[in-house]
Amino acid sequence: LMLENALRRAIERDELSLHYQPQLRADDGRLTGCEALVRWLHPEMGAVMPAQFIPVAEDSGLIVPLGEWVLRQACRQQAAWARAGLGGLMVAVNISALQFRRADFTGAVTRILAETGADPAWIELEITESALMQPSTELHERLVALGRMGLTLALDDFGTGYSSLAYLKRLPISRLKIDRSFVKDLPGDQEDAAVASATLSLGRDLGLEVVAEGVEQPEQFAWLQARGCAKMQGYLFARPMPADEFARWAAAHD
Ligand code: G
Ligand code: G
Ligand code: MN
Ligand code: NA
Question: Domains of the chain (ranges plus CATH)?
Fold first, then answer.
């Protein structure tokens, strides 16, 4: 409860910020975009990590205002980068299942896009596989509507849920993100290698781009690249960084 109250105040008092982690094309190493990750700097507790406060936010319903804050901030950043000549970078935003499942989600996204002037063509929504576990017509139509608005949709934490493959084929999504837990012990761990391989061949068969996250070792990169993984994200390339640092990193990278 203490953390919950502190988090409520954090949203009001501007203690949250976004860090951005580069995503690179596997074949030529070009920067294609980034994932926005929320950070909380509490005046006394110091840095509180999302693994601690996202679950609290989900249990208390605070994830809704927090998620909107994150999306608004990421959209503002996309618009600012475009004005500064750093356009052409996809900005991916994590959407919690609770947020996505609310009837007014599409409305909130529409409002935030209008308010910030962000270009939906450069905004990607990362929706967890678990958010789509009980696919209803309503949720399916929500994805279709978001896609029609020009947003890119990615399935995050892929492999941790149990998506029906038949359903996956019909989903209006364009990317799969292999969960970090399956990348961590590549290429040695046979089970993880099987999950990663299966995801890559599924992506190929269904025409979905596959992104690997949590790439830390050159051996993991080589293994994934050899199997056709299109994009990579991880400490091997760069850590999540504040916006200004990300812009400098991007300029130096190209
Ligand atoms: O950045 P870090 O590795 O600490 O993130 C830990 C977890 O918190 C990850 O599962 C990540 O998806 C989640 N997370 C980070 N930022 C956000 C956010 O803005 N919204 C939501 N819903 N989850 C986030
Ligand atoms: O669940 P989600 O995919 O959104 O989680 C992304 C999280 O993974 C972020 O919290 C980010 O800080 C973390 N992350 C990104 N790259 C790496 C990496 O190479 N190694 C580890 N251990 N964590 C990473
Ligand atoms: Mn993510
Ligand atoms: Na993930």
Answer: 2-247 (3.20.20.450)
